[in-house]
Automatic annotation (TrEMBL), chain A:
Subcellular location, record wording: Membrane
Transmembrane segments: 15-34, 168-186
Single annotated GO MF: phosphorelay sensor kinase activity
Designated name of the protein: histidine kinase
Organism annotation: Pacificibacter maritimus
Domain Histidine kinase: start-end pairs: 247-455
InterPro entries in alphabetical order: 2CSK_N, HATPase_C_sf, HATPase_dom, His_kinase_dom, HisK_dim/P_dom, HisK_dim/P_sf, Sig_transdc_His_kin-like_C, TCS_sensor_his_kinase
TrEMBL record, chain B:
Name of the protein in its database record: Two-component system response regulator TctD
GO molecular function, one term: phosphorelay response regulator activity
DNA-binding region location: 124-220
Keyword annotations of the record: DNA-binding, Phosphoprotein, Transcription, Transcription regulation, Two-component regulatory system
Matches recorded under Pfam families: Response_reg, Trans_reg_C
Lineage: Bacteria, Pseudomonadati, Pseudomonadota, Alphaproteobacteria, Rhodobacterales
Boundaries of every OmpR/PhoB-type domain copy: 124-220
Gene source species: Pacificibacter maritimus
Domain of life: Bacteria
Domain Response regulatory: 2-116
Automatic annotation (TrEMBL), chain C:
Pfam families: SBP_bac_6 (PF13343)
Keyword annotations: Signal
Protein name: Iron(III) transport system substrate-binding protein
A GO CC term assigned to this protein in UniProt: outer membrane-bounded periplasmic space
Amino acid sequence: MSSVLPLSGSLRNQLAVTLIGGAAILAVLLFFVVRAYAAQVAQQGQDSILVASAASILDAAVIRNGQIEIDFPYSAFSILNTPEDDRVFYAIHRDGTLLSGYQNLPQPHIQPQDTKTIVTERFRDETLRLIRISRVLVGENLRTEVFVTVAQTQDALSVTLNTISRTVALFGLGFFVLSALLSFWATSKTIDQLTRLTTSITRRGPQDLTPVDKPVPVEMVPLVTSLNTLMGRLDQSLKRSEDFIAEAAHRVRTPLATVRAYAEATLQRVSREENRQALRSMVHAIDESSRAAGQLLDHAMITFRADHIDLQEIDLVEQVREMVRNLSPIADMRDVTFDLKTDSDVSIAGDPILLQNAMRNIIDNALKYAPNDSVISITVQTGETISITFQDQGPGFPATQIGDLTKRFARGSNANGIIGSGLGLTIAQEVATAHGGTLELSNKPEGGACVTFTF
Amino acid sequence: MKFLLIEDNIQLAHAICSRMGLDGHVIDHASTIQDAQAFSQTDDYDLILLDIMLPDGDGRDFLQRHRDGKKDTPVIVLTARSQVSDRISILDLGADDYVTKPFDHAELEARCRAVLRRKGGTSQTIIRIGNVGFDPVAGTLQIGEETVQLRNRELRLLEVLINAPGQIFAKQKLVDRLFSYDDDVSENAVEVYIGRLRKHLKDSSLQITTLRGLGYRLDHV
Amino acid sequence: MRYFYLLATVIFGLLASPIMAVDWEDQRVFSGASPSRVLRILSSTDTAFFEPIIESYLQDDPTVTVEYFVSSTSDLDTIFRQTPKAFDVVISSAMDLQFKLTNDGYAMKVANLPHPDWAQWQQSLFAFTTEPAAIVINKNAFSAQPIPQSRQDLILALRARPDFFRERIGTYDVRKSGVGYLFATQDARLSETYWRLMEVMGSLQARLYCCSGDMIDDLESGKIAVAYNVLGSYAAARAKTSKTLEIILPSDFPTTMMRTALISRAAQNPEKAKNFLRHLLTIQAGGAYENALTLPSLMSRQDPNGQSTIDLTPALMTYLDDLKRATFIQEWSNAIIQN
């Protein structure tokens, strides 16, 4: 059952990647938008100062005695002071001739409908923000237009922009980190629901095919519904196949029982040795086949249960006692007695059905080989490990085969005439393994086989 | 003793009836739950043998109703299902024991005896001959004031002999009754148990006589 | 050392021929012990004030020969604009002209100098002194009168004795002196008193000078009794030897400027120029050197920041505007020249 499913990626990763990727894109977008906006605002700040500077120069322009005088205030330039010591250039033109200031300073055209123009220009290896405004002066017989151009480098602006970029980048990063954390949280929250469903299904015993009835999120309802349907169908088909097996067993075993009962009854009446021998063989064959069928089923069941071992707290002593009680009548038939030695309560985590099966097989084995009027001692020992020892007074295991007897269909060389499928010890061995324990076969020096089941 | 056998397979039922009859038991046979209920209403049985798969329902339902009806007649289930889980569910429903088909008659008998003994009801059919009282269910032999607990094979041997005092039983017959068919025993093995019984009956008014070449006979002296 | 100076002066004519067309106020050559490079300094500061600085520099780096050229602040501006390649370091007290040179891109950036922000511009123009403009008087002229402490006092004093002061008042000719123009424009910007003082001085036929040195000479000799807006540092240096001079820092409002240095962008020897600048700034930072200085340190003023009243800002360019300058000169001329 532990086959590996082909994987199609991780839902958690997909979710996390999508969310975090989204957050990253948003953060980057946020960074660019805010920075662009901040740059615009900062540029507007510089522009408005440049405009104020140029306007204060232009405002000072007057015509006096036919001459243009511009006694502009000290503040016209002092307001252009920046922490980054930006260079300042200006030019005052009258109808295209330079009155004062820097020659060759770009003179962008002012659109007719505007009173000013603002451009970014290169001048003397510097990028300048340049503003040009004009005013028409009217004096006696004179009408002239004065242009004022003020330009400034953008060092302070770029420093401001860098500061803003850093701040915005930090903000974006913070946003991203927060979103990432939130995505992780949301992802694990979502996956938790799946995990919880998985756990609730994994924790079930192998026989539990009841529908999931715990509340689940809306999105998982279709999954859980189809899971429930599937389990329902599985449950039904299991029941059907159980019924089928039961029916089949009944159909086969009942006639066998009939034949066996007749054979036994007949055996009481006939006295000719050859007839008796024939009847014995018949009974023997019936027992052999029914026992083999039973053990094959048991073995299949054990393989299934061992894969999905359903550990529960059980009272080991009570289990053993129950088993002894159940088998006493059979032992009695041969005047074999059980000698049960146990400590008080020994509680272990185990699968009671598996354990009963294992013990029954071990004791059955012992009963088959135990001589008449003998004792089978069963000892439950606690200590560092918990173990059950089954010891009979029979011939013991064949020494040369002792390591192989737990293999499937392996039978001891001294098993002639004794009913057995060779699966009993295999079953016990597999149950021990499923419980993380061992099954040890040995022979007692004083004679007799000893099976130790250790947890 | 009186048994109720609920089994729909007529052949098997006959086989069981005839085999049990050999042991001197009285058996009523019902092949449906309906019949079974009718029988169990009217008559008191020492033991019920119950098949699970019946034409008109599940034997477990009968068991359930039987227990619900506060009847404590012991029930041994005859089941075709061999698995431990099935056995457990049967026991949980109130069955006293079960036997998996096909079963060794000796085992069935042993289980019946064990169940009856566990139920504690001493048999109403204590056999008394002379100063001997024999309780086949409890497995006790009372001689005068002394009570001896018989071992299984002694018990079964005595049961055979005491049911027909004066009748000669061939060694062969006795071996068949005492040993499972696959116990590889010689006819002489029965001598051991005859010897033990003789020892128990030493002070009684019963004695086992050996008839050379014929077998054994229980005589009342 | 003297020997080197003499020798250097002899061969100076041959070496410096490309810039010899100028009529220098002074020119000196300071040679290190093993000269291999020439560092040319164009300065408006009298050689005497810079001699100790240059000499201490040469002790640190004897591989340099320093050629030191002195001219007036406005000539300096003109000369440098014409031949920026000929000079490595430019030093002037005319902050506005220095500022404009820097703004116009004549200065070289010297990054990462540990210099206060207010005392530098564009990491290119570095101030190294804070110096007041002073009223200097010949004490003999005020033997019986109270010594004026402010511009207003001075106006009253002049008006009180017009005949005494006629042609005995001196100030910068702002048309010729850069630093004079700087002081004048800053005074005019800050207070109307300036114009009234100019009116009074004009009415008394004030004498106009190109340079502080000449003005102090005449003051010491008694040719003039009062000099207005003299560089305090020069006057203080002279006052050490002359008992007749008294320096008054006007109490109404002070005008302080900063002497600035820049390295020519076209400097032939930029590394040496930077070393020299570093040396100059270190010395002039004050502190341990304070007492040995011939020029006031950058922090010499009472102001806790030592900051000058004239800031290194683009506003310095205001009065350098041709139109503004024409207007100002016109007004100034109207006030002071009343012939």
